[in-house]
Write a structure and sequence with these properties.
By secondary structure, the protein is an alpha/beta fold. It has a single domain, classed as TIM Barrel, CATH 3.20.20.70. Helix content is 45%, strand content 17%. The chain is built from 10 helices and 8 strands. The chain is globular and about 45 Å long. It starts with a strand and ends with a helix. One of its GO terms (molecular function) is orotidine-5'-phosphate decarboxylase activity.
C-alpha cells in the first residue's frame, strides 16, 4: 500500500496566538484518503513558546521539530535524546555537522519513534552562495554528497529542495525525503530560491512536503488548500 502524503504546515511565526489560529484553521481543512496534515515547529516559534508548547501540540497532532541541530556530537546526542521524549515525529540536524554528529543523533533517537532527517542545502542558497562557502559544484552536487553522508551515518532521511528530490530518490531510495519550497504557479518564491509544485514531487515518490506561505499567506485558505490537493490527488490516485 502506498504511504500517505504528509503536508507539514510550517508554523513560522513567533506569535503563539497567531500560530494557534493557523492550527485551528488547518485542523478544519478536509483531508482526503492518503493525505495527512502535521505541523512544523521552527526556531522562531520554539524560542517564543518553548518545549511545553511543543509537547502539548504533539499530544494532538503529528509534529516536525525543525531546530536544525548543528554542534559537537555529544551535545547533539543529548539534545536529540531530550527531544525524543516529546512525542514528535521528525527532527532535523544539519548534515554539515559531520558524520559523527549525525550518527550520534540517529543513535539517540533509536527506539523512540523519532525520525532524524538531515538538512542538506537550504532552499535559500544558490550556486553563488555555495561558491562563497567553498562548494564549487552547485546545489545539486552538494545535496547529493551530503545525502550520501546522511545515509552512511544512519539518518532516516534528508531535507532537500524540489530540484534535487528526484535524483536523490533514485540514488538513495532508502532515505525519507522531506521537501520544503512548495509553491503553486503564481505563488511568490519569497526567500526560497529552489521551489517546486507538489504534484511532480508526489509522482517522484516524495511523501513529506513542507507547506508554508502557499497556505498561511493565502487570502482564502480553503481555495489554496483545494488547489494544492488538486495538484497531488491525481498522482495518489494513479498509484492506487
Amino acid at each position: 500500500m502506498t504511504a500517505p502524503v504528509t503536508f507539514w504546515l510550517a508554523l513560522d511565526d513567533p506569535d503563539p496566538g497567531r500560530v494557534g489560529d493557523w492550527i485551528r484553521r488547518a485542523r478544519a481543512l478536509p483531508r482526503p484518503p492518503g493525505v495527512r496534515l502535521g505541523f512544523k515547529v521552527g526556531l522562531a516559534l520554539y524560542a517564543a513558546a518553548g518545549p511545553a508548547w511543543v509537547r502539548a501540540l504533539a499530544e494532538q497532532d503529528a509534529v516536525f521539530l525543525d531546530l536544525k541541530f548543528h554542534d559537537i556530537p555529544r551535545t547533539v546526542e543529548r539534545a536529540t535524546a531530550v527531544a525524543a521524549g516529546w512525542g514528535v515525529e521528525l527532527l532535523t540536524v544539519h548534515v554539515s555537522g559531520g558524520e559523527a554528529m549525525c550518527r550520534a543523533a540517529a543513535g539517540a533517537a533509536a527506539g523512540h519513534g523519532l525520525s532524524v532527517v538531515g538538512v542538506t542545502v537550504l532552499t535559500s542558497l544558490g550556486a553563488e552562495d555555495l561558491a562563497a562557502l567553498g562548494w564549487a559544484g552547485g546545489p545539486g552536487a552538494a545535496v547529493l554528497h551530503l545525502a550520501g553522508l546522511a545515509a552512511r551515518a544512519g539518518l532516516d532521511g534528508v531535507v532537500l529542495s524540489p530540484a534535487e528530490a528526484p535524483v536523490v530518490g533514485t540514488r538513495l531510495p532508502q532515505l525519507r525525503r522531506v521537501v520544503p519550497g512548495i509553491r503553486l504557479p503564481g505563488d511568490a518564491p519569497g526567500d526560497q530560491r529552489r521551489v517546486g509544485r507538489p504534484g511532480p514531487l508526489v509522482a517522484a515518490g516524495v511523501r513529506d512536503l513542507v507547506l508554508g506561505r502557499a497556505l498561511t499567506a493565502a487570502p482564502d485558505w480553503a481555495a489554496a488548500w483545494a488547489a494544492i490537493l488538486e495538484d497531488v490527488t491525481a498522482e495518489i490516485g494513479e498509484e492506487g
